[in-house]
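@here heads up, posting the sequence + SMILES for the NAP run so it's all in one place. Ping me if the SMILES looks off, I pulled it from an old spreadsheet.
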Amino acid sequence: MAGRKLLISGGGGGIGAACARRAAREGWFVLVAGRNRGRLDLIVGELVALGGRATAIDLDLEDPASVRGAIEAASRACGDGEPLTALVNAAGIAISAPFLADDSTARLFDRHMEVNFHGARRLIEAFAPAMKAKGHGRIVNVASSAGLRGYGYTAAYCASKHALVGYTRAVAQELSGSGVSIAAVCPHFVDSPLTDASVRRIVEKTKQSEAEARAFLAQQNPGGRLITCDEVSDAIWSLIEGDENGSVLELDGARRVRLEGPVTRRPKT
Ligand SMILES: NC(=O)c1ccc[n+]([C@@H]2O[C@H](COP(=O)([O-])OP(=O)(O)OC[C@H]3O[C@@H](n4cnc5c(N)ncnc54)[C@H](OP(=O)(O)O)[C@@H]3O)[C@@H](O)[C@H]2O)c1
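bot reply: prediction finished. Complex structure tokens:
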């Protein structure tokens, strides 16, 4: 497939950057989107130095004007009027708090829903129509094991990731037979900047050492270790290269489990 193009939200680091590297190695044009222009430019520089093609797209999923601007910038960057081949929604925030706290907690629910759910939804709504018209496209949502079960003190995060998984399942039914697939990956704790931030918060709150906090999180994974960003990127890539629609893949540090999918039925008209 010539001219394959992938937009990755949250492409400036962690899982998104691992996915960007993989795509560039495979010869795709990679659009890395996020808030931190410095980090995006670093990744783009890295990909170009490797012989890949990439560009940075400014995107703040909490700002509707920025989302609109990013969608326009991505369309301009693609240049040829052809739709994206694939969209990976990797951007996400995870801020822990008791479910009953203070006014700031209510705001946390809004922020998690805005970034982790509506952000992904808005990008899908922008790019899926052209994919459908073309009869080909791949959408992968980076959800979480928190989209499948609950973890204490992360009600906002869990709610937003459950929303994303439910949305993925429903949209897969509607996309069935269209040539466009949607899927979700649900990793447990990953060795990434997001987990580094969780480690820092645990250290602050419990006075554990950084190594103890990291080991604690690793032990929460059924595999007893943190998952690597490359492992998640490999799972994402298997969904981009395959044609499975509606798959939900759980990565637990021991195994990659297909919880459901693919959806093969044609939707009722
Ligand atoms: N780490 C884990 O244990 C784990 C486990 C399961 C699922 N996940 C999910 O994996 C995804 C990637 O996370 P990661 O682990 O790779 O950590 P990460 O490096 O912190 O990635 C999160 C990305 O989201 C972007 N982002 C955050 N807020 C944004 C906003 N308002 N607008 C646009 N982009 C925004 C960040 O980029 P900027 O700062 O440049 O905006 C960052 O690149 C997330 O959806 C996360 O929920 C992570």
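MO: Strands lie at 5-9, 29-34, 53-58, 86-89, 137-142, 180-187, 248-251, 256-260.
MO: One more: The pocket of NAP is lined by residues 9-10, 12-16, 34-36, 39, 59-62, 90-94, 115, 142, 144, 187, 189-190, 192-195 (CB under 6 Å).
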